[in-house]
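Lecture notes, unit on binding sites. The following record was shown on slide 14. It pairs a sequence with NDP.
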Amino acid sequence: MADLAADFTKKHGYPVCLAIVQVGNNPSSESYVKNNIKLFEQVGLKTDYRKTEESITQAQLEAIIENINKDPHIAGILLQLPLPKHIDERQIASKIYPAKDVDGFNAVSAGNLYLGNDAFVPCTPAGVIELIKASRQPISGKNAVVLGRSNIVGKPMAMLLLKENATVTICHSKTQDLSKVCSKADILVAAIGKAEFVTKDFIKPGAMVLDVGINFTAEGKLVGDCKADEVSEIAGWISPVPGGSGPMTVTMLMYNTYNAAVKLAASKNK
Ligand code: NDP
């Protein structure tokens, strides 16, 4: 990525830039954003960090997004969640130009993913698919179970697995016999945000397990959604927490931002 970023800057006279919009002082958002800024800088990608007061109005926040949309030197927009309750998240998301929606956040991007069109895909599931592909294990024809159905992880994850011809089951908090359903999975993606919830009873011997969860125990230890020690005894492969899906998410954000910058620059030259 560093080479691509340097070549882009040399060719166009400005760097690839991601705008990060954060509302308020949520501590997890703060540390996630600062980490992203540091990692972007390390590879020569620029960030434009716009942090606002918690009390910002819907109209003011929309004006910030409109302003970034029009900036020819900003390739992508990351709208950091959560937003305060008085802000209509979907309405704000709809204001992001699809061409700059590098986190695949708005309805146009989600619809394109659903239709199988070219679109920015939310970075976490996009990173998980890359992890699976890197393992060189086949996806086509496999039983895949996605644990979690959020718009940003579970649902797009299921769409990506479907696109790769897996037979996909989506589970959530109302799913009956959860461990039984999961134990049929050749590929299990755990994205529920419950520390060490997935035990060995959920795992088919030899399965590939992708742990997306980021949870902190009472002692402050970072753990995934899987009980890693016992799951890894049964699974054929498991992505670690920390170190698996987390770094892949930021990597995909870099690639999406770079690709958005290339497309934006090309459209200006038309
Ligand atoms: P959400 O809280 O938005 O969604 C959680 C999903 O899990 C919901 O669909 C919910 O079901 C389901 N769920 C919750 N409890 C259970 C349960 N006991 N049994 C079955 N299903 C359950 O979370 P996100 O999707 O945003 O994130 C999930 C996890 O991934 C979190 O730990 C988060 O921190 C992590 N994450 C990691 C990222 C990374 O970079 N690696 C990036 C983004 C998130 P229902 O819909 O019925 O409520």
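Take-home: The domain at 123-239 is CATH 3.40.50.720 (Rossmann fold).
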